[in-house]
Amino acid sequence: MAQTALAQHLIGGEFLGGADKERENPARPGEVAVRYPSGTAADADAAISAAGDAQPAWAGLPAPARGAVLLRAAEILRSRQTEIAGDLVREEGKTIAEATGEVGRAIGVFQFFGAAGWSATGATYDSALADTTVRTNREPLGVVGLITPWNFPIAIPAWKTAPALISGNSVVIKPAELTPMSVTHLARALQEAGLPAGVFNVVHGPGRVVGQSLAEDRRVAGLSFTGSTAVGLGLQTTLNARRARAQLEMGGKNAVLVLDDADPRRAAAVVAAGAFSLTGQACTATSRVYVTPGIRDAFLKELAEAAARFTPGDGLDPATSMGVVVSRPQLEQDAAAVEAAVSAGATLHHGTGIPDGLGFGPVVATDLEHGSPLASEEIFGPIVAVIDVDDYESGLAAVNDTPYGLTAGICTTSLAYATDFAARVQAGVVKVNRPTSGLDLHVPFGGIKESSSNTFREQGHTATQFYTWEKTVYVGIDR
Ligand code: UN1
Question: N or C, which end of the chain is more exposed by having fewer CB within 10 Å?
Fold first, then answer.
């Protein structure tokens, strides 16, 4: 049996906190994966103070010197990729291949933003005034708060932390309670890379205590959150009331439109990867498919076969190709959603919707009304609803008929349909013939409608816009 990992707070450069709480390995009931401390409002306060004290000196370093710390952290993470991926599987439940890829993504993020220390920032203008130039500086916000989810327990903290740090901010992060260890590894790497004490702080604990403290504290100039729409909208109200900067990435109900001209096998592979990888537990996952009549039967047959190729189980077993559901309550929620759909007349083409021990195989459901819960509510499991539509126009209308707007896809060989869809679909990310989940680390990402605060994008160079504000400097030279 693996040794139990110990997650700790990091406050002012000190790893602190006892092992008051336990997180079980979701694939092995009874095996404690991590012990971790449960933070209080006082811990959040101490972390915010430490971050405030450390920030000016950090911002005063040349950006390439800040970048060097991030590049060293990337190297340290790489040297521990296997160990971190193992701990990530034990606390989250995804497959070891997915976890190794996720740690690789975190490494890439630190390399990208480390190198960004050498990039140009700001712009210069010719003023309309004589003998005057104008330039803009990008200035750090100061102390930023980060609240991160369990489904990408190291990649999302990395892609929020790295742009914050390269821009000269200090950070207080509250990781999801289900996955406290991954951010602890991130904290160790940053600390060992030479990040000054207090620049990166971690406080574990419940969102309503620690997360709420970060949202309410006037010393926290901006807060970036990824999680559910319900929690995100509550935070946005708190942040707006004190005019703090908010970046919220929330839920999705991402759809793929499969058209008659597509290849059924390829379309099924795109949908299966989007719906079932990461056990369907990505806010970018595919959970609705609209299909036109000419391809319907062939596509469904291929999709059921693609679903059958997944082997659910313990992510540490190399034969597993779909990890377990993250927790018992989530598993019950997934099962209840499928059961309710079946009672309302849905047909299952693959999967039973009944948990098999800890496994919950891929589920492909048809005979659902477009507005039924399985086809319209975010469930966050390996379940896909396939719904018939008459043609492209009615399919596009159905894709857009949702309060969410994160990702959307189309499977087609028609350049005309692909182009029209990309222009008219209401989503922050559009994928033509590619799965709705799985994003490059260097391109902008974010949703519209209720999937987002509709403020700032994450990832790539665009990400630094959230963590900086623009100062306009006029310089007059009198000769
Ligand atoms: C991806 O699909 O590669 O929490 C990333 C999430 C998203 C990130 C998805 N914020 O699932």
Answer: C
Start-to-end CA distance of the chain, whole Å, equals 77
Q: Is the CB of 283 under 6 A from ligand 1?
A: yes
Measured from the Cβ of residue 122, the count of other Cβ atoms closer than 10 Å reads: 14
Q: What are the tokens at 452? A: 């987002």
Q: Is the CB of 170 under 6 A from ligand 1?
A: no
Q: Which tens digits make up the pLDDT trace of 35-74?
A: 999 999 999 999 999 999 999 999 999 999 999 999 999 9
Domains of the chain: 5-250+452-474 (3.40.605.10), 254-432 (3.40.309.10)
pLDDT at 2: 65
- CA–CA distance from 67 to each of 36, 122, 163, 199 (Å)? 30, 18, 10, 14
- C-alpha distances out from residue 5 to 21, 82, 139, 325, Å: 12, 15, 38, 21
Cα gap 448→432, rounded to integer Å: 18
Ligand 1 in contact with 372 (CB < 6 A)? no
Catalytic residues: 283
pLDDT for residue 1: 52
* Banded model confidence at residue 87, pLDDT cuts 50, 70, 90: very high
Q: Please state, in angstroms and rounded to a whole number, the distance separating the CA atoms of residues 292 and 398.
A: 12
* CB of 226 shorter than 6 A to ligand 1: yes
Alpha carbons 7 and 84: distance in angstroms, whole number = 12
How many Å lie between the centroid of ligand 1 and the Cα of residue 11? Answer: 28
Sheet of 286-291: strand order equals: 347-350, 363-366, 383-388, 286-291, 254-258, 407-411, 429-432
What's this model's pTM, rounded to 2 decimal places?
Answer: 0.97
Nearest CA to ligand 1 atom 6: 283
Output the CA 446–ligand 1 centroid distance in Å.
Answer: 9
Q: Is the pLDDT of residue 6 over 90?
A: yes
